[in-house]
Amino acid sequence: MFGQMMDLPLLLSNQIEFAAKFHPSVEVVTRTVEGPIHRSNYEEIARRSKKLANALAKLGVKEGDRVATIAWNTHRHLELYFAVSGMGAVLHTINPRLPPDQLKYVVNHAEDQVMFFDTTFTKLAQFCAASDTPVKHYVAMTDDDHRPADFDAAKTYESLIADESDAFEWPQLDERAASSLCYTSGTTGEPKGVLYSHRSTVLHSYAVTMADTLAISAKDVTLPIVPMFHVNAWGVPYAAVMVGSKLVFPGPGMDGASLIELIESEGVTSLLGVPTVWLGLLAAARAANKRFDTVKTVTIGGSAVPPSMIEAFEKEHGARVIHAWGMTETSPLGTANVLLPKHASLSEADRRKIEIKQGRPIFGVDLRIVDDDAKVLPHDGETSGHLQIRGPWVASSYFKREADANHVDGWFYTGDIATIDPDGYMHITDRSKDVIKSGGEWVSSIGVENAAMRHPKVAQAAVIGVKHPKWQERPLLIVVKAPDQEVTQEELLAFLGEHLTKWWIPNAVEFVDALPLGATGKVLKRKLREQFADYVFAE
Ligand code: AMP
């Protein structure tokens, strides 16, 4: 017997329509690429999203087509979120820090038809235009007064929508229809596309507004510093629109002084971003003798949160840190760290031991740990194993890839190694995937190793992540020299500088006589990480 409830699809167009109807005057404030602060509200965002949807339809964009963005967090990017997905097309948010070959790869793999770009990233759009890609239209996200001088083929966003009607009938899509696409390099090999659906995104929006997760509400002034090209800014823009939280976008102003000014002038209550951002912001606040009196919560994820950061926000700003864990493949929220009533009486030191864990799963996702033979391990807080996750906002496979080793028996192998305690707090203890996360972005170990191996005096090369005070992790290159050859760190780093994106270049090179090898001849990265566990980069 079926329930007798209305079967209305969960669609992103419903979120923006709801916002326009029930919290139309709630503000969306942006520090623009052009410079000034721009003020908008949900009624206007909804209206302009419809004008944009009409313009996209005229450009020939149809349901299922991919539309790319290379853009900061701004009101225009928010309009693209709703216009593109709302009309049934798929928003492909591109990370501007991708090395050129990966940028070209994702644009081709996604088969992007239109590319919207902030003028900061004009060179990247021009690179795509000069390369062999399927993009037919380029749109600079600005007005005609600020159009890039040397890119005649590009239209501007404001001229594109200026004469369009603000009446647009959002199609009643199947809620399982694709809404957005984000590539992740958090695995070895080429970037892989995660294709979100309307249903998964709306369910995830509910998840991030729950009181025991990120608790985003109408009472909040939310400033997502986490980029809109990184897992949809952790789904925060959708959630804020849904609940009517004022949204504040930093645009390109990611330096401490610009952020402090926005936090103060807009009365921000909720901040979200990766640890590297907070190191800079905390230092800038100390230097300027500022206290963030309005900020209540700071959500930190993407890398583990150091206890000193939790303490600094608590003591210097009276703000609560919410430590969260997730992945591009999980929309991203999987766990959030909120204390239970029984923790109220704990000493600060004991409380901290819990707070540095990645947190408890959120209803909707299920977590477990397994050993190398996929045997399920106990949640005793001691036994560590491969962390697996499943749920309606977890990717079931990658875009245009049939099978992959990470999806097994309905569970997704995260590549993280973790413990889970009896209360459900998950704690990451290691990583089985061979990648390095620097300042919230992935460095491909294999990419760096392949480049190093091209040097004639290198016999073997391995790259591991080593703890770094600012970037959480930085690459260390470990090299076995070719027989009877001499080569220096300087020589190798200069060589890599010619072949790699700047931030992929290792901070140091260590020379060894041999690399630890496993039975199949593969370098044992875990052994190397143990060997260099106490390594400290020279200043
Ligand atoms: P991404 O897909 O780029 O968001 O990266 C996801 C990966 O980042 C996870 O699988 C973890 O390895 C790492 N990660 C995310 N959040 C945390 C956290 N709170 N603590 C430690 N590692 C994290």
Shape: globular
User: What percentage of residues falls in helices of 4 or more residues?
Assistant: 25-40%
Average pLDDT over all residues: 95
Unreliable stretches (pLDDT < 50, length at least 5) are none
**Strand order across the biggest sheet?**
2-1-11-10-12-13-14-15-16
Strand content: 25-35%
As for the CATH topology of the domain at 12-197, it is Rossmann fold
CATH architectural group of the domain at 12-197: 3-Layer(aba) Sandwich
Q: Radius of gyration, Cα only, in angstroms?
A: 23 Å
Largest sheet: 9 strands, mixed
Distance between the termini: 68 Å
Structural class: alpha/beta
CATH class of the domain at 12-197: Alpha Beta
Number of strands: 26
Quick one: CATH superfamily of the domain at 12-197? Answer: ANL, N-terminal domain
Helical run tally: 16
Give the names of the bound compounds. adenosine monophosphate
Structural write-up:
- The protein is of the alpha/beta class and 539 residues long.
- Among the domains are: 186 residues, ANL, N-terminal domain (Rossmann fold), CATH 3.40.50; 96 residues, GMP Synthetase, Chain A, domain 3.
- Helices cover 30% and strands 25% of the residues.
- The chain has 16 helices and 26 strands.
- The strands form five sheets. A nine-stranded mixed beta sheet has the order 2-1-11-10-12-13-14-15-16, sandwiched between helices. A seven-stranded mixed beta sheet has the order 7-6-5-3-4-8-9, with helices on both faces.
- Strand 19 and strand 20 form a beta hairpin.
- Helix 2 crosses helix 3 and helix 7 packs across helix 9.
- The N and C termini lie far apart (68 Å).
- The mean pLDDT is 95.
- The protein binds adenosine monophosphate.
